[in-house]
Amino acid sequence: MNKKRSLVIAPGRGSYTREASNYLSKVRSKNLDSFLNRIDAKRELNNEKTISLLDKSPFKPKVHLVGENAAALTYFCSVADYKNIDLDHYDIVGVLGNSMGWYTTLALSGSISLDDGYDLVNILGSMMKDQIIGGQLIYPLINDNWNFDNSIFQKVMKKISDARAHVSIYLGGYIVIGGDEIALKSLISSLDPIEDFPFRIPFHAAFHTPLLSEISNEAQKKIDKNIFKKPDIPIIDGRGFIWSKYSTNIDELYNYTLHQQVVEPFNFSKAVTVAIKEFAPEKIILLGPGNSLGGPTAQVLIKEKWMEIESKESFLAHQKKNTYLISMSIDKQRSIVSRK
């Protein structure tokens, strides 16, 4: 059987939104029941709401979007989607993720176990339970047809510098900016309004910036390096670096995961760019919950003119003719890649 070479992308923790409510009841396969039971038991022991209960409960931002809940929910939903991919028809040649999706990537690739992946996600997602450090806002760098506008980029970068803020994530046609309250307020007042932007991302800290250096130090004290091993499937990190089964240095992988990507910018755009050029996937599969990476991933394809996709219009036309970018949170697209 001729399997389609596929790249898998895991979302960040902010992807479990109101629209994703009750996601697991729709997508979970029975082979994950014991895993879910173990996670729920751990959370009960820690006086945390279980994944099962959170997923079934009416969506409340102050419950579902806080780190200790959002991270775990997103992680389990992504794992459930991954386990539903029909491996008889799709050959997964590489895995990457955005922001917290890097931790999911480690678990999906076999670099850490699913249980250790949950512990990693939950520890890091809960470390600012009492006090969030700084925050993030997002701003577009593209025109209406999703073409990158370098003049906007240069202006935004200068304003980031002037405000003493930091680039947090290069996210396709958007830039995510992290900083303290003074820096973010300065940016919100100085950036030109474009529709709903600049948009302050609720319940998010200044991830991937130097402000989280103490979080990095604390995480290294809590997370054992021995849970890491070389990945079974190549993974692409937030610099566009490829970690393979044959080349990975465990010490370096541990240091990147718990230090570099915590305090330095996460370049999702570079990760996607490297992945499509190195692995030439026939399909790109976006794991749920939500479809927050659909636009940013398409915008990277447009910037690279991948498969002659040059604009939002040509991307949509290509999708209609032969769906290349598959979001598992969209039922019609999910059915393309999920096990029957």
Produce a short descriptive summary.
The chain is an alpha/beta fold. It has helices at residues 23-27, 33-45, 51-56, 61-64, 67-83, 101-108, 114-126, 150-162, 181-190, 213-222, 250-263, 268-279, 294-303, 312-321, 331-337, and strands at residues 4-10, 90-97, 135-140, 166-171, 174-179, 199-200, 235-236, 242-243, 266-267, 283-286, 325-327.
Describe this structure in words.
With 340 residues, this protein is of the alpha/beta class. It folds into two domains: 4-130 and 212-337, Malonyl-Coenzyme A Acyl Carrier Protein, domain 2, CATH 3.40.366.10; 135-210, Alpha-Beta Plaits, CATH 3.30.70. 45% of the residues lie in helices and 14% in strands. It is built from 15 helices and eleven strands. The strands form two sheets. A six-stranded mixed sheet has the order 8-7-2-1-10-11, sandwiched between helices. A five-stranded mixed sheet has the order 6-3-5-4-9. A hairpin with a 5-residue loop joins β7 (235-236) and β8. α5 (67-83) packs parallel to α6, α6 (101-108) runs antiparallel to α7 and α10 packs antiparallel against α11. It is globular, with a radius of gyration of 19 Å. The mean pLDDT is 95.
Largest sheet: 6 strands, mixed
Q: SS-based structural class?
A: alpha/beta
Q: Rg from C-alpha positions?
A: 19 Å
Strand order of the largest sheet: 8-7-2-1-10-11
Rounded average pLDDT: 95
Element pattern in H and E: EHHHHHEHHEHEEHEHEEHEHEHHEH
Q: pLDDT below 50 for ≥5 consecutive residues: which ranges? A: none
**What quaternary form is this?**
single chain
Distance between the termini: 16 Å
Helix count from the secondary structure assignment: 15
Strand content: 5-15%
* Total discrete domains: 2
Might you state the CATH topology name of the largest domain?
A: Malonyl-Coenzyme A Acyl Carrier Protein, domain 2
Approximate shape: globular
How many β-strands, per DSSP? 11
CATH superfamily of the largest domain: Malonyl-Coenzyme A Acyl Carrier Protein, domain 2
Helix content: 40-55%
CATH class identity of the largest domain: Alpha Beta
CATH architecture descriptor of the largest domain: 3-Layer(aba) Sandwich
